[in-house]
Design brief:
alpha+beta; 3-stranded antiparallel β-sheet; 47% helix
Length: 202
């Protein structure tokens, strides 16, 4: 009777030996291979990837707060600049009004002086009033508003305001015949245009 070998089956015990064809799976089947470890700790807390998002959100929040603070400071600076500009503008207006009023004080003084001598020679009164008028015209010219009361010049719509058209054979058509109210100033610095009558065109 032949003796059976007590040596264990190598195919079953040695993983390096291939199983014969047709052999089925082992008694436990194919076991799944373990995958990569999850980023969670053994105690169930979030792993390092989840914890890394919190500092990033803190940085974004800090940056937004800094931008809001800069925006508020810029608004405050702009409001202060606007208020300071308004104060300076009002101060300049007050200075200019004071300068203009001071320039006319001598004119008023001379008018009052003329009134105190109303009972004197009428011819002297007329000359005094004319001198005061010339003084006032000179003040306006110094302020940048020269007087315009010329006749015989061509009508200029930028300097003249037509209040009448007359037939004058001695005046060329379209020229100023009479100035009813003098004008003061030129261009953008014009107080008012001169009111004139113009010779009729043929």
């Amino acid at each position: 009777m032949p003796a059976h070998s007590q040596e264990p089956d190598r195919a079953a015990s040695d993983p390096g030996v291939a199983a014969p064809e047709g052999a089925g799976p082992g008694p436990h089947g194919d076991l799944p291979h373990p995958g990569p470890p999850r980023p969670e700790a053994a105690n169930g807390e979030p792993g390092p990837d989840a914890a890394g998002s919190a500092p990033a959100e803190d940085e974004y929040t800090t940056a937004i707060q800094e931008l809001e603070d800069r925006w508020r400071r810029a608004l405050a600076d702009l409001d202060n600049l606007r208020k300071r500009h308004a104060r300076e503008l009002e101060r300049e207006r007050a200075v200019e009004r004071s300068r203009t009023a001071a320039a006319f004080l001598p004119v008023l003084d001379n008018l009052e002086l003329a009134l105190t001598h109303a009972g004197a020679d009428p011819g002297a009164i007329v000359e005094g009033i004319r001198a005061v008028r010339d003084q006032a015209v000179n003040v306006l010219e110094l302020l940048g508003y020269p007087r315009h009361a010329e006749t015989g010049v061509a009508f200029d719509p930028a300097r003249h305001e037509v209040v009448g058209v007359v037939q004058d054979p001695d005046a060329p058509p379209g020229t100023v015949v009479e100035v009813l109210r003098p004008g003061y100033g030129d261009g953008e610095r014009q107080l008012r245009p001169a009111a004139v009558t113009v010779a009729k065109r043929e």
